[in-house]
Amino acid sequence: MKLDPAIRDQVLAAVPSLRAFAISLCGHVDRADDLVQETLLRALAHIDSFEPGTNMPAWLFTILRNLFRSEYRKRRREVEDADGRYAETLKSHPEQTGRVEFTEFRAALAKLPSDQREALILVGASGFSYEEAAAICGCAVGTIKSRVNRARTRLADLLAIDSVDDFGPDRPTRAVLAGSGRS
Amino acid sequence: MTTGKPVNMEPPPAEADKPEDRDAMDKPVTQRREVRLGREVQARIGQQLRAMYDDVVKEGVPQHIGDLVRRLSEQDDGAE
């Protein structure tokens, strides 16, 4: 059976954003493109389980996220410290992940725990609602909200501390506050 | 989702920083400055996050991925 061209076009339309999400997860364009390809292969092989009229991007993002997570678990040793490697990739090849002017921002983003990073990106960049992001990540809406909040707070701390030199005596206090009380 | 739609960078409701923002003017100057700073940083975070993401989105569908999807959608998958 050939794929309905309307469905095919929905898949294609979701690819650019899917790629951006994949790059934000992997921190590396080549690996992200592999992940996108694998996602599309899997999606098209199971296209019967997609309900026409429902949210195609959310369906594809869910598949991609699950693939990324299972690959991550499988290769745990290899990617033992995924965040560290991510940061390392950025340091050595900033051009791999985009324009140099985002380097500082990416470095800060790389310091976030992966669940917070992914929640922030789904809601803040991909444009999903909290409910859609929760469905994609397989968790409660409240969990997504708190991850997004923690991500924003942590990023603000990282970027404010880096860019504001007139913080004076407030700075150690902020650092202490940033390091405690949030779990 | 995606491109054309407005992106939700608002903190979820019932957030602790709302009331803090509201009475910011009653606070000592240093705290007030910190609140303002927090807001500026949050705005910058949202903007940079979207700019970084949209940089990739603007690249569209890479040729080899487009080809893959078209090839797979033409092919008989054996299922019904």
List the helices and strands and how they pair.
The complex is a heterodimer of chains A (183) and B (80).
Chain A: H1 5-26, H2 29-45, H3 56-74, H4 82-92, H5 103-110, H6 114-124, H7 130-137, H8 141-163, H9 170-179
Helix pairs in contact in A: 1-2, 1-3, 2-3, 3-7, 4-5, 5-8, 6-8, 7-8, 8-9
Chain B: H1 17-22, H2 29-57, H3 63-74
In round numbers, the mean pLDDT of chain A is: 81
> Which structural class fits the helix and strand makeup of chain B?
mainly alpha
Total number of distinct structural domains of chain B: 1
Classify the beta-strand content of chain A into a percent band: under 5%
What is the percent of helical residues of chain A? over 70%
Task: Determine the N-to-C terminus distance of chain B.
Answer: 30 Å
Determine the number of helices of chain B (DSSP H or I, runs of at least 4 residues): 3
Radius of gyration of chain B: 22 Å
CATH homologous superfamily of the largest domain in chain A? RNA polymerase sigma factor, region 2, helix turn helix motif
Shape call of chain A: globular
Q: What's the level 1 CATH class of the largest domain in chain A?
A: Mainly Alpha
End-to-end Cα distance of chain A: 50 Å
